[in-house]
Amino acid sequence: MMKSNSSSQQRRINGAYFTSVISISLVLFTLGFLGLILLYANNLSNYIKENIGFEIVMGNGVKEADIIKLQKHLDTKDFVKSTEYITPEEASRRLKEILGDDFVSFMSDDDNPLLPSIDLRFNAEWANNDSLAIIENYIMQDGNVKEVYYQKSLVSMINKNLRKIGLVMFGFSLLLLIIAIALINNTIRLSVYSRRFIIRSMQLVGATESFIRKPFVVKGVLQGAISAALAILLLLGIIETLRENIPELKLLSSNNALICLFGAILIGGIILGAFSTSMAVGKYLRMDSDKLYA
Amino acid sequence: MDQKSIISLRGLSVFQKNKLVLSDVSLEISSGEFVYLIGKTGSGKSSLLQIFYADLPVEQGHAEICSYNLNAIKRSEIPYLRRKLGIVFQNFQLLDDRSVSENLEFVLHATGSKDKQVIENRILQVLDRVGLISKLKSMPHQLSGGEQQRIAIARALLNDPEIILADEPTGNLDPETSNGIMKLLLEICKSGKTVIMATHNYSIINKFPGKVVKCEEGSLITN
């Protein structure tokens, strides 16, 4: 009978610990999943910005060597992600692909009206109208450049929409973060609450506050770490499933970014576990005995 | 505080939740005394004990215990004062998530003991003293009320305290078990410790005489 009491009490303690680890894991998983969405959204936003077309049309008769020289010069600039030199012949071929008709076939090669150009792609942080205007002026200083062409309204619209989406996602993330912290804090506080009389007994036998706090905080850290590990495993499962079903997602996330996300979940879980436990234990260490037994 | 006094109270007022429960309390208790603190429920016995172990602050008057001035004691000093006291409660207050041995080990670890052999020997010594050496590995819920109280007394003895404060230690026990606990407390007193025991069980006082201090109508009356 005594043995069964003892083992049922141990089962209850283990059950409560397991439940609290699962609750924290699910909250951390939700946070991690949001982090994953933000990561993909940010990479998608950069991908869109880096594919905004910017065409540098060279003057008629400019030598190929001068064009390549300009291309190499541009490649050294911070704002440039990539450049591509497009000869009039290549431009003609691409136009044929688009229109489906060889519109220069009735002309001789010398009559190709298309001019050589450099197709430029920007790094995402430069892909806004203000920066593009400065870059346009800079490029136009080269005497060989006839004109620079890009869709100002498209750039403006992309940036405006991405900003709006970003704001909504930031607000949502902040709200979810607050909810997650409150949930984890509450779970840990409940688990410490069930041990408040033990804390009281420890105080009465002459244990210092730091001595009482230490094992609780160690347990909180372990709880946070185990929960974070479970959340990361769940996220890995989700990522693998998504990658198998949507191969394009591979382009949008680097392993480094994912490692950073998982690191943040682990550190977040540990810090939240330690901090919430320490706060909850501190509350009972300072509590009057009247309130404790009320 | 004279040379032999281990507790000295002068003009002390005891408040519980801002309510005055005892006023103008003056009392001197010497080393090795056995003192009964009696009075009706709510008369201030437990509150006075709480003052002794610094669980209630001294707001008016002067109190000194084991050379600690309770008027000026810092929060960080309270654990060290409590190591000079052994506190025994009616409801035992053992750590119910660990065994008898672990309960006792915890106190020794918490109060700075590190040597495993010293800890083991001390635990066996105090359990031998309360006659429960066979219960070393038992969990608190596996013990009877009397046994739990004996373990609580063993725990109180671990750090060789100067004073044992016992708040209704026989309150939850049958008369026979209560007698056993009283004999144990008297033995401890005879070994040179001061024992202060709050109770409202007058039959115990008649059976085991000692100094009686009565809490009545907000005052302390010494017999």
Spell out the key features of this protein.
heterodimer; A: 294 residues; alpha+beta; Alpha-Beta Plaits; four-stranded antiparallel β-sheet; 10 helices; elongated; B: 223 residues; alpha/beta; Rossmann fold; 7 helices; globular
* Element-by-element helix/strand order of chain B: EEEHEEHEHHHEHEHEE
Order of adjacent strands in the largest pleated sheet of chain A: 2-3-1-4
Unreliable stretches of chain B? none
Structural class of chain A: alpha+beta
Main sheet attributes: strand count, strand direction, barrel closure of chain B: 6 strands, mixed
Overall body shape of chain A: elongated
End-to-end Cα distance of chain B, whole Å, is 20 Å
What's the oligomerization state? heterodimer
> So what's the CATH class of chain B?
Alpha Beta
* Estimated helix fraction of chain B: 25-40%
Q: Compute the number of helices of chain B.
A: 7
What does it look like?
The complex is a heterodimer of chains A (294) and B (223). With 294 residues, chain A is of the alpha+beta class. Chain A contains 10 helices and 4 strands, in the order αβαβαβαβαααααα. Chain A has a 4-stranded antiparallel beta sheet. In chain A, α1 (2-49) crosses α9 (255-286) and α5 packs parallel to α9 (255-286). Chain A is elongated and about 100 Å long. In chain A, 23% of the residues are buried. With 223 residues, chain B is of the alpha/beta class. Chain B has a 6-stranded mixed beta sheet with strand order 6-7-8-3-9-10, sandwiched between helices. Chain B has a 4-stranded antiparallel beta sheet with strand order 2-1-4-5, with helices on one face. The longest helix of chain B has 16 residues, at 175-190. Chain B is globular, with a radius of gyration of 17 Å. Chain B starts with a strand and ends with a strand. The model of chain B has no long low-confidence stretch (mean pLDDT 91).
